[in-house]
Specification:
- About 20% of the residues lie in helices and about 35% in strands.
- The strands form two sheets. Strands 1, 2, 3, 4, 5, 6 and 7 form a seven-stranded antiparallel sheet that branches. Strands 10-9-8-11-12 form a five-stranded parallel sheet, with helices on both faces.
- The radius of gyration is 17 Å and the shape is globular.
- It starts with a strand and ends in a 5-residue tail after the last strand.
Length: about 230
């Protein structure tokens, strides 16, 4: 089934179909990636999201953490005891059939845009950047992308073994990510568009920081994970 989706920047095709969970990959003690095989290919851009429905009552939105260059569809999420959806998802074995609807969202990597970008991720907010960086590598685009990943400890970060280009800041030992750390890690920070993704409080704080540092609104893009907590 095909639908037309629209936001302030884009019009896009939304597909509804079934998908099978083909693999469940633990990323940390509390985060897992669920790899899906849809009944037909889902055309999406790096950074977009989709809905997953487990049954009539359980539906949730997730960023697509895979890249369009990969032969599977992947979401990555943190287990939460208070979430009925998360409990049901984490109890679903490989072979489970789910309904998917997507893609949606305009927080996407435009490969024709060759301007330098600084990605700043907190926690599970790494998911769209994993998709974008994988796409950049696989397509050999060589876009000037830099990633700062803020985590409590390295053990709390997803995709650590594959995000070799990431500059990781461990708040437990190094303190919170701040302007001084950003300037030290990325000397040309003021020449880059900042892309921010993570829990709402973190995103709000870095939007405010970017504004204080003099970045114009068009050089600040953000995506909040409202269901993060």
């Amino acid at each position: 089934e095909l639908l037309i989706g629209q936001d302030s920047e884009h019009t896009y095709i939304i597909q509804r179909m079934k998908a099978i969970i083909i693999e469940i990959r633990p990323e940390t003690t509390s985060i897992s990636s669920f790899r899906l095989r849809p009944t037909s290919p889902l055309a999406y851009q790096p950074g977009q999201w989709m809905y997953i429905r487990l049954n009539e009552n359980l539906k949730h939105h997730f960023t697509i953490s895979s890249s369009p260059t990969e032969d599977f569809l992947q979401i990555t999420t943190m287990y939460r005891e208070e979430s009925e959806f998360k409990k049901a998802l984490f109890a679903s074995p490989a072979g489970t059939i789910v309904d998917i609807e997507g893609p949606r969202g305009s927080f996407v990597l435009d490969e024709k845009d060759t301007s330098p970008r600084l990605f700043i991720a907190g926690g599970i907010g790494i998911t769209p950047f994993r998709s974008m960086l994988k796409y950049n590598r696989d397509k050999q685009l060589n876009l000037p992308l830099k990633l700062i990943y803020s985590v409590k400890t390295r053990a709390d970060g997803a995709f650590m073994s594959e995000l070799v280009e990431a500059m990781v800041v461990e708040s437990e030992t190094e303190g919170r990510l701040d302007a001084a750390k950003i300037k030290a890690l990325v000397p040309d920070w003021n020449e880059r568009t900042w892309w921010l993704c993570g829990p709402p409080a973190m995103v709000d704080a870095f939007v405010e920081l970017a504004q204080r540092l003099g970045l114009p609104p068009e050089k600040i893009k953000s995506e909040e994970f409202s269901g993060y907590q």
